[in-house]
Amino acid sequence: METGNEQKNGDTIMKENEESAAGVADAADVGDVAAAAMASNIAGAAVSAQTAFEGLQLPKSVLVFDTTLRDGEQTPGVNLTADQKFELALALDDLGVDVLEAGFPASSDGERELFRRLSREGLNAKVCGLSRACKPDLDAVLDNGANYVHIFLATSELHMKHKLKMTRQQVLDAAVDSVEYVRSHGLPCEFSAEDATRTDMGFLKQVYCAVEGAGATMLNVPDTVGVSVPRAYYLLVKEIKEATRTPISVHAHNDLGVAVANTLAGVEAGASQVQVTMNGLGERSGNAALEDTVVALANAYGVGTNIKKEHLLSVSQMVARATRVHPPRNKPVVGENSFAHSAGIHVHGVLAHALAYEPYSPETVGQKRRIILGKLTGFAAVKNVLSQMGFDVTDEQAKQVTAKVKEMGDAGRRIQDFELVGLAEKMVGIQRKAHIALGQVLITTGNSIMPTASVKAVVDGKERTACATGVGPVDAALNALSEVSGERSAKLKEYKLEAISGGSDAVCEVTVTIEDAEGRRRSGFAIGQDIVMASVEAMASGMNNRYSHEDNRKAVAMAKSNAARVSE
Ligand SMILES: [Zn+2]
């Protein structure tokens, strides 16, 4: 795939696609199931990849068509600004997607401007614009710098009759005319038979053969409404594959929770491209998640992509921040719990050999292994976490900390790192002064003024004052506190507010997690009746827990030498 946005003539594109299609076929012909089995990291699998995929013509690699900025942006409640879309497009390009569907140019001036901006940027990915099968839509794509066109037109009886109010013949004609129009401009043209999974098979084949004849370069088979399951989707894609010669793409929705499984079934059936979104964003229950699909293809099938997997977590987090749709903790690949272990037996196993309870190494997707302490935590985990924090404790001390951790866990608490530091300090006999001692906090807020906060505090022995504004009183107060602490680079990663009792005078608990410039996290906690004050105190407690592992090591050494002097 060439770089830059220069347009190619139709023949070159055609040839390129034929070559890539041939490449896919070659890879399968030479018995790459064996290679796939070798590449797969399911070591010692009960059913080997060789057996599981016997008889299938798996490709060596597939293309990734990312539609985070189009189908993903159609997630209810998500609205991205042009600048956000531009930044995300650059990140997705860096990630290595082959086709980047940046939006729907016919829909707004902002979308068209985005395409012009992206075309000036010269991305490695093809920049694709979505279009209905009509000339004004197509011109909006063609005139604004896209170098790849994705046409969709519904083919199911339900859609044709009630939505489009078109006959089969009218749909066939519009599809063919649109594809020919794009190809006369020399651009690659992908065609989607919208609602393919609910379309009459005979008519569906007729449509795909017709657009293939008109020069379509990729045939996408969308499960638009998410009604299919892997076995059915496999048979559908296989049948289209056998009826045509053009590369096939798959597009699955997650209404039945099987979008990724359907996408994989599509690849098993011969698809050479997957349409996916970061974090599985998309209409209703979303699309197949890019990260899950890519990792499953690589690990379970030995099928490659151009995705730089080690960037998956950072791009996922960037998408989550922009869309404000945060993947659940237990989301595969990029979830906070994907490589977190809490139960004693699992922690012990993972510390003995990581693969004991991890399907693959967290670093491969930009993640880190984390040990979470709770009531099921055992001695090995506590000792490991303490030593990672810089506390070189004896077995006896670690046992005492473990007992305390279990006690807190039994009371329903999730043990925060600052609490563990506190326990360890007590055990080893360390006394440290607080970095920040809060003084006066003054906040003004209302329905017609900008929320403003001023915070006075003693920071490392010096009195300091700072003022800041924010979107609300909590935001303003936390901004002022970051300013006064001198830790402007510290980012608030997590803010959790829980009301313990009912009513507007409820006692609330605030937990915050702060991340410093080096990516180290620490948490803080406070309890109170005033939400704003509890938030400020939680943030200050997090900032006070700023000791590096080296600081902890020094403090432990100091405490030991003091103890030795006293006993002499
Ligand atoms: Zn869709």
Question: Can you describe what's shown?
Answer:
The chain has 568 residues and is α/β, with parallel strands linked by helices. Helices cover 43% and strands 17% of the residues. It has an 8-stranded parallel beta barrel, surrounded by 9 helices. It has a 3-stranded antiparallel beta sheet with strand order 11-12-13. It has a 3-stranded antiparallel beta sheet with strand order 14-15-16, with helices on one face. Helix 5 (109-121) links the parallel strand 2 and strand 3. Helix 10 (230-243) runs parallel beside helix 11 (259-268). The model is unreliable at 1-39 (pLDDT under 50). The structure holds zinc ion. Zinc ion binds at residues 71, 222, 224, 251, 253, 282-283, 287. The site of zinc ion (ZN) has 8 residues, from loops.
Number of domains: 3
Assign the structural class, choosing from mainly alpha, mainly beta, alpha/beta, alpha+beta, or little secondary structure: alpha/beta
Looking across the biggest beta sheet, what order are the strands in? 1-2-3-4-5-6-7-8
End-to-end CA span: 75 Å
Average of pLDDT? 87
For the record, the CATH architecture of the largest domain stands as Alpha-Beta Barrel
Radius of gyration from CA coordinates: 28 Å
Bound molecules: zinc ion
